[in-house]
Amino acid sequence: xxxxxxxxxxxxxxxxxxxxxxxxxxxxxxxxxxxxxxxxxxxxxxxxxxxxxxxxxxxxxxxxxxxxxxxxxxxxxxxxxxxxxxxxxxxxxxxxxxxxxxxxxxxxxxxxxxxxxxxxxxxxxxxxxxxxxxxxxxxxxxxxxxxxxxxxxxxxxxxxxxxxxxxxxxxxxxxxxxxxxxxxxxxxxxxxxxxxxxxxxxxxxxxxxxxxxxxxxxxxxxxxxxxxxxxxxxxxxxxxxxxxxxxxxxxxxxxxxxxx
Length: 260
Hints:
Elements: E1 21-25, H1 30-44, E2 51-55, E3 71-74, H2 90-109, E4 113-116, H3 118-127, E5 130-132, E6 137-146, H4 148-151, E7 162-169, E8 172-175, E9 181-186, E10 189-196, E11 200-203, H5 211-220, H6 232-239, H7 249-258
Parallel strand pairs: 1-2, 1-3, 3-4, 4-11
Antiparallel strand pairs: 5-8, 6-7, 6-9, 9-10, 10-11
Helix pairs in contact: 1-5, 2-3, 5-6
């Protein structure tokens, strides 16, 4: 069993009460990674014992026994599965290889999984979706519409028919293979969320991201090519106009449904 560290410094899976959830992080920058971890736990209603973390930019994934975890969550970051191999760093290549192998097992076992943003690219790759830059969206707010299939899904059914969320991505799913269920869409990106089997999910938008988190990420990633660095302050003003209160429902429902 893999024994990841939480911010409390304790190691090992919880043996009493609910089995913990596992957050897999691909954010190399401490400020963004730590904010993501805090936000995931806060919206999920979990402490560092209830949600452990492995930072794949800092350590190998190691062996994961899926039975030790109530569910696995993958956060977003600057990696893109569809980037040419020659532009990927050694860290990205290693992390991506580990994640794709894990996701293959997750899909085969239909183990609870929620991939946020980068989850679309990784899970989509495993199931044979077309992942490319056709439907990239700029950093900022996005209006998400729940599909008819999403209305019948336990994670998406509690959401309004349309809701606002934060996003920003260079790659997305252009097509899904038969069997994958499209749960949400936006005007600029036809696949904002999908499900595989009964328990494996990916969202293009960020269900863990509130205004404070978005402002942090604008500061951290203003030199990463998502937007012109000189436009950072204007972008901060623009994102303050969005009401993203409903987006965390997906994360909350995931934890409520799969805590065991």
